[in-house]
Amino acid sequence: MSLHHLITDRIRASGPISIAEYMTECLLHPQYGYYTTRDPLGRAGDFITAPEISQMFGELIGLALAQCWIDQGRPPAITLAELGPGRGTLMADALRAAASVPGFTKAAHIVLIEASPTLRSLQQQALAGHDVTWTDSISDLPEQPLFLIANEFFDALPIRQFIRDENLWRERRVGVQDGTLGFGLGTPMPQPGLAHRLADTADGDLVEHCAPLTAITESIAARIAAHGGAALIIDYGDWRTLGDTLQAIRDHAPVDPLIDPGQCDLTAHVDFEALALAATPCQYTRLTPQGMFLERLGITNRAQTLAKSLSGPHLDEMVAAHRRLTHPEEMGNLFKVIGLYPAQAAPPPGLNP
Ligand code: SAH
Predict the structure, then answer these.
(1) Which of 116, 157, 210, 245 has a Cα at 20 to 30 A from 237?
(2) Candidates 3.40.630.30, 3.40.50.12710, 3.30.430.20, 2.40.70.10; CATH matching 35-157+210-341
(3) β-strands 160-165, 146-151: how paired?
(4) pLDDT, tens digit, for every residue of 295-310?
(5) Which residues form ligand 1's pocket by a CB distance below 6 Å?
(6) Whose CA is nearest to atom 21 of ligand 1?
(7) Segments making up each domain of the chain, as ranges
(8) Model confidence, pTM
């Protein structure tokens, strides 16, 4: 049995499924899901993320969150949480750097929200020596100040796609034809959740909607508004997405998203406007390119300090990592950062209101 078989059987039995249902099966199926069965990260995996490129990324994020904690009067008991922590590299680097801020790590109860058992065990190794709690759901987080990081988490959440048909919408679905998975369109229906998109779209335009993005953001924002804290959310995407951004990656190259379910990473661009709208009653910062954010946090100084003890290929690697994280032609512009913070508090460092 393969996931391809399971999905085609299910569609034959009960009809086409939404792209969200397809993504959920592909990424998180308990037996065959992409994240459930492997560690996809790093050069040997399918894709590489910022914390795996350089320790500087996690260090600067850790110090930025510690600065938010200082700015908010050093609350004595906080949750330090990460959504989708991958190999645990970012959190390990953040904790090492933030250990230089007296009291911060002592105040922090570390919580990781992770669906994959494979990645949970890697996180456990990366964070050996720290007291860590794992949970499946953001709603399990305690009611106390929340300092949260999410890097390339929201892009893995399942989206639905809709094509405008006059003032109605046809959902793009996954069906089966001659034993092969293919996209089709549902019948035109009203979609109250997309009412605001009637103003900026034309007949035939495709829009995406990510229901879990709204639910998760509301949960984070409610805690930050009630108890204090901050969230740094980093991902690729833009302010209001338009068009098909569903993407499959295998071995660092794009492939057809329907070709091999469970064997490739599936993502969609994050709609930061939808995220910001769900973040009330918090404040949110301007959407800021990752390169600019890291420069403002001092990545170049940090790179120069690290470079002093390096030579040869190690030095070249450091220079390449700095460029990859910050340069507009690499990750610098493609990835964006938004910060959530309580009313009356200062925005997180590196971000403007
Ligand atoms: N933040 C990491 C990993 C990004 S990959 C990094 O930057 O390297 C996406 C991560 O989100 C993985 O850890 C994956 O297992 C996790 N994930 C994906 N969907 C999830 C969900 N619905 N709930 C919890 N974790 C999820």
Answers:
(1) 116
(2) 3.40.50.12710
(3) unpaired
(4) 999 999 999 999 999 9
(5) 27, 35, 41, 49, 51-52, 84-86, 90, 113-116, 119, 151-153, 156
(6) 115
(7) 3-32+160-208, 35-157+210-341
(8) 0.96
